Amino acid sequence: MVTPNVTEVSPQRLPTVIPDLSERRRIHVVGVGGPGMSAVAIALAGMGHDVSGSDIRERQVLERLRAAGVRVHIGHDRRHVHDCDVVTASTAIPVDLNELDEARKRGISVTSRAGILAAICARTGALAVAGTHGKTTTSSMLMLMLAAGDLRPGFIIGGDVADVGTGAEWTGSDWFVVEADESDGTHSHLPLVGTVLTNIDRDHLDHFGSFAALVESFSEYLDRVEGPRVVCLDDPVAGPLARRPDCVSYGLDPEARYRVVDVVAADGRQDFAVEHPGGRTEVRLPLRGIHNAVNATGAFALAVEIGVDPDVAARALGAFGGVARRFDIRAVDNGATFVDDYAHLPAEIAAVLAAARHSGDGWKRVIAVFQPNRFNRMSEIWRDYAHCFAEADLVVLTDIYASGTTPIPGVTGKLVVNAVTEADPTRRVVWMRQREDLVRFLASEVGEGDVCISMGCGDIASLPDEIVEARVRSGRGSAA
């Protein structure tokens, strides 16, 4: 299946050109150390293309790229693109970067990540997971169920899957699992033979202009999928799409075609059953949170719809080892548990905290630490964070992590503080602007029986390690 070239040009964005990858190409990936582009580079190299990449600094993922056969350059140089057929970069890369400018001057095809990902999908039967929340975990579970069914899927997933130790692989089979990211409109370009749509929430309005336009993009996305369209009936926005006659519904809703029932949470896992047209299948999922049971059911539904035996799919779910930065227990120190999670939108935060509160682990206190992300995002949706910390005993908020966005006067982490305290003046909320103050406070505050969950998609990922190190230095840590 080969999709014709499509071009979408913006002064601020790279064109989305879908190159033909049916023959071996010389491809250069700008910003190859990023999580999205590193996965693309690994898949391209696995397909047999001659792949190089550049990044501004050495980092651990580059060794994995070199092992996969990608030639990696540190620093950006115009010479890197000479003799290339295609040059690609993520939306985080300035469009006037020297390598991209040189490629345009030489008449080399320049395309966005959406374009190169669409080209990869066109070489196989691509199945995607779309939606605002849950894409990485759901696509990981889908991939493992297909593998258990001997379908040998390739994949590009937004986080390392613990069971295979990587977020990308090209197997050359008839199946490929990918995340359909809406942040830059990638989901609008992928040629797909099946999909799961988990939910639709307010995000990336800087790209779409309005929530209505975002919702419409997902409706059009479903229209373009050739095969099964599996949509969550529980979600208030995606739910009406799930009722379309060409869609397969899933969720807790009694009318769902694949229905989650009899959920029991204990010991960091969930036991539940899926009622479906073929009968009833028991699942033991080693993940916390009802949202994960629902996401697992969406992946289960698509796997079964394309021919995987339900019992085989359930066994794969039972062995699922998780994904990096998704309720990742980083340390247990003198009875205090430290968790890292990628959650950065209100619904995600609420789901993670509810998972901790109702997991059966018996934690005394749930301490939520949140690092807001992107000035433009916070300026639009800071009020939406008012109620998402309801399951936390203590809320600790930091200032905004820019992620390449431009500061906006008056837009700081204090907006989130205001939203939470105005909604519930009795809730204990602490604002820590400086990282050293944040680490010092949590090192002394978190005690035996507490779970401290740090959330966000900036540099908050290293916070658990910093807290434990501070505890050791102060004599509170178990290693002291």
Proportion in helices = 25-40%
Whole-number total of structural domains? 3
Mean pLDDT: 91
Silhouette: globular
CATH superfamily of the largest domain: Mur-like, catalytic domain
Low-confidence stretches: 1-11
State Rg. Answer: 22 Å
Q: Which second-level CATH architecture of the largest domain applies?
A: 3-Layer(aba) Sandwich
Percent strand: 15-25%
- CATH topology of the largest domain, anyone? UDP-N-acetylmuramoyl-L-alanine:D-glutamate ligase
Jot down its keywords.
480 residues, alpha/beta, Rossmann fold, UDP-N-acetylmuramoyl-L-alanine:D-glutamate ligase, Protein-Tyrosine Phosphatase, Chain A, 10-stranded mixed sheet, 6-stranded mixed sheet, 15 helices, 21 strands, disordered N terminus
Structure overview:
The protein is of the alpha/beta class and 480 residues long. The protein folds into 3 domains: 26-115, NAD(P)-binding Rossmann-like Domain (Rossmann fold, 3-Layer(aba) Sandwich), CATH 3.40.50; 124-318, 3-Layer(aba) Sandwich (UDP-N-acetylmuramoyl-L-alanine:D-glutamate ligase), CATH 3.40.1190.10; 328-474, Mur ligase, C-terminal domain (Protein-Tyrosine Phosphatase, Chain A, Alpha-Beta Complex). Helix content is 31%, strand content 24%. It is built from 15 helices and 21 strands. It has helices spanning 35-46, 60-67, 98-105, 113-121, 135-148, 205-208, 211-224, 239-242, 290-305, 310-318, 346-357, 375-381, 414-423, 435-445, 463-474; strands at residues 26-30, 50-55, 71-74, 86-89, 109-112, 125-130, 154-161, 166-169, 175-180, 194-197, 229-232, 248-251, 258-266, 269-276, 279-285, 328-333, 336-341, 365-370, 394-398, 429-432, 450-455. The strands form 3 sheets. A 10-stranded mixed beta sheet has the order 8-7-9-6-10-11-12-13-14-15, sandwiched between helices. β11, α8 and β12 (248-251) form a beta-alpha-beta unit. α1 (35-46) runs parallel beside α4, α5 crosses α9 and α5 crosses α10 (310-318). The longest helix has 16 residues, at 290-305. The radius of gyration is 22 Å and the shape is globular. Residues 1-11 have low confidence and may be disordered.
